Amino acid sequence: MEVDVSGASWAAMAKKKAVESQSRGRGGVRYGLDDENPTILEFLCCVYPDVLRTIDENNVIRILPLAEKYEVTRLKSRCEKFLIQQTQGETLAAEILVQNIRLSVTHELGKLWSLCVDRASNFDSEKLESIQDFRDLSEETINGIFRHRLKMYEHACKKIKMKVREAETHCSLYHKSDRWGSGLCKKCYSGVGKVSVTELKHL
Ligand SMILES: [Zn+2]
Fold first, then answer.
1. Domain around 166
2. Does residue 13 lie within any of the structural domains?
C-alpha cells in the first residue's frame, strides 16, 4: 500500500514512524507502508479522509495509542467519543468499564474519566474488584472512584434525613390525629419512602 502524505496534517507523524521506505513521486513525497503492519495501516485508514474508517470496539484499543503517539488530535477525540458512547451503554460490562477507566487515565481523557467515575460509583464493587485490571489501577485512581461513591452516598443520606426531619415537623403540626404515637402518619411515611427510593435509584 502507498499513501500520499503531502499536505496532510499527520505528515510529520508518518514521516517519523509509519514508513518502511520512501520515494519521490508526482505531487509530493510518497511512503511505502509494510503490509505486514496491519495496525499502522488501520491507523492510516482512520486518518485518511478518503477512507475514513469508523472507530469501534474492534480497533479503538489499537488506534487510540497511535493517535496520541503521533499527535492526531482529531482522531484521539473520535476515539474518546466512541469510548464515551460505549460507557453510556445501559448494559455496560464491568470489564469494558475497567478497560475504559484505564484508557481514560493512560491517555488523559477527561470527559471519559468523569463518566467512568460516575458509572463505577454505582457499579457492583465486588464485580469491579474481581477484575485484575481494576486491582492493577493506581491507588490514586481507585481512591478517586471510591471517594466519589462515598460522596454520592453521603449526598443521598443527607437528602433522606432532611426529608424525614421535614416530615416529622409537618406531621406533628398538621396530622396529629393520624399519627401512631410519635411516628409519622401513613401519608408522611409514604412521602419519605418516595424520596428514599428516588435517591437509592442513583446509587
Ligand atoms: Zn403526616
1. 151-203
2. yes
